[in-house]
Amino acid sequence: MCGIIGVVARTPVNQLLYDGLMVLQHRGQDAAGIVTAQGKSFHMHKGGGMVRDVFRTRNMRLLLGNMGIAHCRYPTAGSAESSAEAQPFYVNSPFGIVLSHNGNLTNTERLQQELFRQDLRHVNTNSDSEVLLNVLAHELQECATNHRLDLPTIFAAVSGVHRRCRGAYACVAMIAGYGLLAFRDPYGIRPLVVGRNLTEDGVEYLVASESVALDTLGFQLLRDVMPGEAIFIDEDGNFYSKQCAAETFRNPCIFEYVYLARPDSVIDGISVYEARLNMGQSLADKIRRTLPMLDIDVVIPIPDSSRPAALELANRMGLPYREGFVKNRYIGRTFIMPGQAIRNKSVRQKLNTTNIEFRGRNVLLVDDSIVRGTTSREIVTMAREAGARKVYFASAAPPVRFPNVYGIDMPTRQELIATGRSDEEIAREIGADALIYQDLEALKEDVRKVNPAIACFETSCFDGNYITGDVTPEYLERLEAERRFGAQQGREETGTQLDLNLVTTD
Questions:
Q1: What pTM was computed for the model?
Q2: Rounded distance, CA 299 to CA 393, Å?
Q3: Among 2, 143, 171, 253, which one carries the catalytic annotation?
Q4: 38-69, pLDDT tens digit by residue?
Q5: Residue 171 annotated in active site
């Protein structure tokens, strides 16, 4: 889960990109970076930490130009990575290219070998995003004639990327002296939208992970970038698009609607807020159907993602809705905190109880999902300490039983509380008197109802069905072994932030 932005404007874009990253901060808190283009020169600043900590006025002044891309990142390996892996990444051959990527490639190891042995390209980090950049650079080099680029060449190169890369990827890139390129994997797993702004000087375009970035920056949402599609916007603001994949499927990640995306975003024509309201309705129906004996006095959400679902659940069941937890806005989202020890420590710093809403009551706590169970266990304990008589727990998502390999930080089965446990066992683990999970088919219908044109979703963390068809048990075992090794190493590289002026020539 990362946030990406690309802009072609009529005025300097440094402030636009910064403001866009602030809006997408929820998608990654580990690192941030901006690259702008001024003619054939790139200006880059990136580093570890939150957006507000990475950029200072002196950095922003150096980010010159009317075109740029930006990225906010969290590490999918689950622990803090080297600051050298902050994005965007840059290569100077064959044309000078910078790229930002949201997602995760599932054939990174094979691509690394191909790049080294066949393509004769060197990769400096362990990041699959740098691998993807080098694959794109090689395909551009192979397709270009006389070291010159045109639209057919650029789109042919993206077709080459689709043939070689597997997994989830939504990307924005800039080619020095040419323009902005954006493309999405043939399954459309990770989100990418495009919008425009009409000014007196001409049309401006913005590509971003979520529509909320367009809204806040004054751009009108045009549409989603389609699976397998590439969009190219040249330096003059001319817009071109082409389907570059031989076969496409529209399978957006359903976890975007459950948790990852902001509620005010629209992704693949689906309002995240409306989908979450639907989740609350179907969850209420399941409680009535399967646990009618529960004596619930009040419904309390776990802020913030679960609020729409909890509110609709309470309305449907005719129960009082109350805010029982107060959130500290200055603590990061615990789900994407790098490391279990930090996650344990941060829960009580993040939330505090309003005791009057718990004292002497049977409370139904509603959360968007239960992944590791760490936060849920702490919250149930806090509710009891605040005086709750009984604590019931409801999840707007089904049990998370399988690793996600498409860019969400839950890659090992050992970390998932639902793996190998029944609902009753999970309830005991988190200390709840009863536990209610959403059904997967009901969740799909909750989201599909908002846009019936979306027939299928990527739901691997719930059902173990990996839609790209290349994720084997051996792959999962290797991924988990690498994660355990990384945790043992406990890398704590602080690194340094980078200010670069990269000049490229034909």
A1: 0.90
A2: 10
A3: 2
A4: 989 999 999 999 999 999 999 999 999 999 99
A5: no
